[in-house]
Please model this.
Amino acid sequence: CFFVSLLNLPWHLPSSNLVFPPAFLLPKIINHFHVLRFCSFTGKQKYQVSRYHFKKRAYFYPKSVSHFLEMGSAIKHFMELVEQAGTVFEVANTIRGLIENHWEFPKGIDQNVNNLKRKRDQLNGQKEDIESRIKSELRPRKKVKKEVDLWIENVKRINGEIPNLESKVRGSSFFSRGFLVKNVRKKEEEVEELLEKGRFSDDLVVNDLSWIGQVLPTPSLVVETVKRKKNEIMQHFRNDEVQKIGVYGMPGVGKTSAVTLVNNELLKGEIEFKIIVWVTVGRKCSVIELQNKIAKAMNVSISEDEDETLRAGMLSEILSEKGRFVLILDDVWERFSFEKVGIPESSKGKLVLTSRSLDVCRRMDCQVVKMEPLSNEDAWTLFSDKVGQNLMTSADLLPIAKSIVERCAGLPLVIVIVASSMRGEDNLPIWRNALAELNRKISEYYRC
Model:
C-alpha cells in the first residue's frame, strides 16, 4: 500500500526542490532512504501514509553519504530521460504542425487536376491568339511589349509544371495526395490569373527606341536591271564571309537606286540588324566630316575635340555596342581608312559603298558589284512609263523617241530626266529640238 501510494505522489528533494514522477526510478531510489516522513506545508505535523495525503509533499532523507551520491546519479539519469522525452515531444509537435498546415483530405483531387488541365488548354489557346496578333503587329522599328513577353514566358513555364504535378498526384498514395491538394489549388489559381492578364486590349508592340534605320523613298527609275542588282547585293548580305560590298558604275547608272532598294529591304527584318545607317559622303569629305555624318545618322554625339583618333575610338565603341549594324556610304570618291574614321571591321557589321571608281572599291577590299547600263528593252520601258504611254502611239513621235532613248546610253537617271521634261508634249518640232539638244550636250561631255 505504501509503494502504491508513493507512485501517485510528486517527489521533492529539500536541496533542489526538484519534482519528478517516481514511476521511472522508484526501485533505484527508495532503497537509499532511511526515514520517510510526510509533513504539512508548515513542516510541523507528521502524518501516516494515506490516500488523503497523496497531494502532500514527500521528503526523502538518505541513509548515508554514499547513498546520497547514488541517489544523485539516479536523479541525473532520470533528468536525461526527461530531456530525451522532451525532444521526442518537440519532434511530434513539429510533425503535427506540418500535417495541420500542409495536409488536407484529398477528396476530389482527381477532378481538380482535370479542371486544371482544362484551364491550361484554354490558356494555350489564348497564347496562340496572342502570338498571331504579335505577328500581325510586329514591324521594323517595333518590339514586343515587356509585359507581353513575360506573360508568354509564364505560360511556357506553367505548361512544364502542370504535367509534373499531375504525375505526382497520379502516382501518390492516399496520405501523400493530402499534401498535394494545396499545390493543385494554387496552380489552378495561377492559371486563372494568367487567363485574366492575357486579355490584352491595347497594342502588343511598342517602338524600339534602340533601333536605328529609315525607309527611303522608292526610286522612280526602278526597272528589272536595277532589281537584279539589288538581289545580287542581298546575296552578299547573306554570306557571313563578306563584310564589305562595293557597288560601282558610271554616273546615273542606278547605283544609288539599287542600294536604296537594299536599305528598304533590310528594314523589313528578313536579315536581322540592329541599326542601318545611310550616309551620303560626297566628293570632298574629310575624316572629321565623315565621323560627324555617321554620328548624326545614329542620333549620337561624339567629342568636338579635333583629335581624329579619339573621335574614331568613340565612334567605333558606339557602333560595336549597337550590335549588328549596316553602314551604307553613298557616293564615295576616294579611299579612306576604316580605322581612322572609327568603323569597326568585324563580323557584326556590314559596309556598303557606292562609287564611280572600281579602283576605290578594290582598294577598300570590297566585294565588287558592277552596275550595268539598262538593256534596250528596260531603257524603252522606263522612258515610256515616264513620258506617258499614250504619246508613244504617235507614228511621227515614235522614231524620235527611240533615238532619244538610244542617245541616253542606258543610263536610268538621264532617261528619267529627259522623259519627265517631255511628258504630255505632242508637238513634233519640240521633240526634234529635244533630240538636238541632247546630242549637243553629249558631245560637250565627251570633249571635256
User: Anything to note?
Assistant: The first helix runs from residue 2 to 6. The chain has four domains: 2-102, 109-207, 224-370, 376-447. The CA atoms of residues 123 and 195 lie 6 Å apart.
